Amino acid sequence: MPKTAMLQPDSPHLIGPMASLGGLLREWLPGRRWFAGKDRPVTDLRLLSMTELFPGCLHLLVHAEHAGAHSGGHGALPAPAGSPPPAQPADCYQLLLGVRQQPAPRLHRAFIGRAAQGPLAGLAIYDALCDPRSAQLLLERLRHPGTVGTLRFETDQPAVVPGGLVPRVLEAEQSNSSIVYGDEFILKLFRRIQPGVNPDLEVPWALARQGCSRVPAPVAWFGTTQPEAATLGVLQPFLRDAADGWTLALRALATGDDFTPQAHQLGQATAEVHLALAEAFPTGGHDDIARTAAAMTERLEAAAHCVPALGPYAARLRTAFAALATCDAGPPAQRIHGDLHLGQVLRAGREWFVIDFEGEPSRPLAERRTAESPVRDVAGMLRSFDYAARQRRPWRPEWARRCREAYCAGYASRAGWDPRKKHALLRAYETDRAVYEVLYEARHRPGWLAVPMAAIERLAVRGG
Hints:
By secondary structure, this protein is α+β, with helices and mostly antiparallel strands. The chain has helices at about 10-30, 130-145, 200-210, 245-255, 260-280, 290-305, 315-320, 365-370, 375-390, 395-415, 425-445, 450-460, and strands at about 5, 40-55, 55-65, 90-100, 110-115, 125, 145-150, 150-155, 165-170, 175-180, 185-190, 220-225, 230-235, 245, 345-350, 350-355. The strands form three sheets. Strands 7-8-12-13-11-10-9 form a seven-stranded antiparallel beta sheet, with helices on one face. The chain has a six-stranded antiparallel beta sheet with strand order 1-2-3-4-6-5. A three-stranded antiparallel beta sheet has the order 14-15-16. Helix 5 runs parallel beside helix 10 (about 395-415), helix 6 (about 290-305) packs parallel to helix 11 and helix 11 packs antiparallel against helix 12 (about 450-460). The radius of gyration is 23 Å and the shape is globular. It starts with a strand and ends with a helix.
């Protein structure tokens, strides 16, 4: 078996292993949390690259095509009736597969299957990330920069990571996979791969050079040079005593504790990150309001086509987007987080940290790296307070209102502008976010649909 195979889908080096792996992966992939095509049959799998990372561990980039035409993100909605059928959606996924004669009993949950044919016939195939030995060898690659086939391992802080750290895979549902090493470092491996530098490397690296302490700095990373340059994983310090904002908010709701001081401090932290981002990356002037409004309206129309419950509110929601034409342009467009909510922030001691700058994985990478209004991040966090408040019955809208006010006040105290005074902008971005949430919940968690629908009613009837 070759050490590395390049992007030549018709190459025998790539077709051969897929004879062993294709059937197993077709069954295994749709069950992964990070697989985007869970609701669509896999129609084709092609191997784009394969590298033997170390004996018994294969690194693969796999191109998957799906039947059907929708995924969970913006801009990936069914076409209106009568329009030409869209091209089949496709994604590139990163896989690390273990290959053994007989996997250890502790790997039974990671077992994918036994190859029945091809060059791997008779061998057991499993998810190598769940194998402590493979995880430790992967860390060794990151500790010693260099290349393995088409994979490049890099760091600008040599010898900062000690060897022998015990790995554990995080079990939380997410769109990627993460391994914690000795409660000192965390490695995030991106599952859906797009060409270019991933913002979760680009942004923290740039902010570290701005002296921004609100974002853990990258320690090491790796990527591929084939078929195109792309980021595959990032190693960062692990905040061992930290809790995410979502957990803390739910805890405060359960105990009846006041969360407004934390919300105020979180607003300050968000503003500090936005200020650092504006310094680290060129600002883009003001948003093209007409284009922004048109995109929001298009998403609303498509979502209403998919979720009939939106229909009665659509006309009044459009007024939120139409109002952008005459409102204050607000702060300049700049690099932002892109998917900010309580699950993307950590509190360690009395400090808030912002993590996961990847943005919405369903959006094109180039789109996630463009300058946007920071109001979008603010709106995302405000919606998150509302989600938290509705996790317990009876619902606590007053709790959410107080947290929203405190967050905006904290943001204003650092940013130099107050989101509450940009009412039309904030309403438009919050409406756009709520429309996205309605579509997501209708597709993936119908039991949660009432949460964003309550916001839709508030935004449509009371305007905010």
